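Reviewers of the previous submission asked for a worked example of the structure-prediction workflow described in the proposal, so we include one complete record here. The input consisted solely of the amino acid sequence. No template or homolog information was supplied to the procedure at any stage.
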Amino acid sequence: MKTVRIGAGLGFYGDSWRPVAASIERGGVRYIGSDHLAELTLAILQKDRMKDPAAGYTRDLVPMLASLWPLAQKHGVRFVLNAGGLNPEGARDALAAEFARRGWKARIATVTGDSVMERIDALRAAGEPLAHMDTGAPIDGVREKLLFASAYLGAKPLVEALATGADIVLSGRVADAALFLAPLIHEFGWSLGGNDSDYSRLAQGLTVGHLLECSGQGSGGNFNSYLANGWESVPDLAHIGYPIAEVREDGTAVITKAPGTGGRVDFDTVRQQLLYEVHNPHAYFSPDVVLDMGTLSLKDLGGDRVEVSGATGRPRPSMLKIVAGYQDGWAGTAQIGYSWPGAMKKARASAAIIEAQLRESGLRYDEIHTEFLGYNSLLGPLADDARLDEINEVYLRMVVRSQDRRLAEAFPRQFPWLALSGPPTASGFSGIEPARQLLGLWPTLVRRELVEPQVKISVTETLA
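From that input alone, the workflow returned the following structure tokens.
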């Protein structure tokens, strides 16, 4: 039975591509699926694009492929990446220019059409309310402040791009797992739906994509088990190998990693990644199929190999998710630290002083967030008060939000005088910086037939 090996690329913008080289050189992979985008990433890319209209794609694309392409070309490995972000064509142009400069030959297919920013009003006119998915709030309140809006496309356009013979498929916003499902559909000729067998194969492919989409998290990174085989027992994280899936035509897969790499692939690491970001394991939605994880079987084969089988799928949803971003004011931030003894008391006292000054000065903010680094910045309300007096050092960090940039920039100026006129041992002050523009996220749904006809595929060739 035919098999295809797919390797994990990046799990987020800024992730390391060093482990990808091991998967290409020693892992026998034919494809690398690389997920550069999160909802937050789109907001970051929008800020880039506001400074430079030619930007808006993930800047790690070009150095990553510049590093990996000679090895990939030698081993015949193809890439599927969503690094195009908000500007897939700009990403293609930058990549093609770099390849041309180096004299490398490649066929690059670009998938566009996920952006619906210019069609918001047309979509509403077609009967789409575009209400907030979680709150049901109407989009009217943010309509004039929208900066971008991208629909999560599925695997189909990526499959069509692979069919052009592309060495590199570059897209904007697609569902994360689609980057891995697409090569399987392309290689095995799977149908995109019609009967239970089709849906089960697609569900298996979706499962594979979900297990690979987070790079090292699928092979022992970020492993959070409190058992005897917890994170401390995961070997050589400094040289972790990203997960690889060896997939058969029926969708059954073995999750593994390249020989001689660190990390671990076993029942526990795989099941933890399986449940990552899953609200309902019996209905895990994607643009291509709805996965029921309740029928999945994980079999630990030993030697960093886990077999995954038995997924059940249901027909794809009629709606696609959109993530939109809008202007949401400005943030002003300041931070100051205190040391033992009584570090926490000093930090709390300073927070109270700042709050009193804000009241007396008449400065009003939409929101004030206060946290104490070293105590509750990670644990929040679950932080333990039992040993507060023993804390060596604490940093008070306060952030305000305002629709007025000038108010946001005025906030950190309340802090410097504390160095000589507040509680003792003040140090490590940071503030007096330009306010940061805040982008809010607006998740919503849209009928897929209003988006998919706008999807386009173009092909560019660079010549050696």
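The longest helix spans residues 343-361. We consider this example representative of the routine output the project will generate in years two and three.
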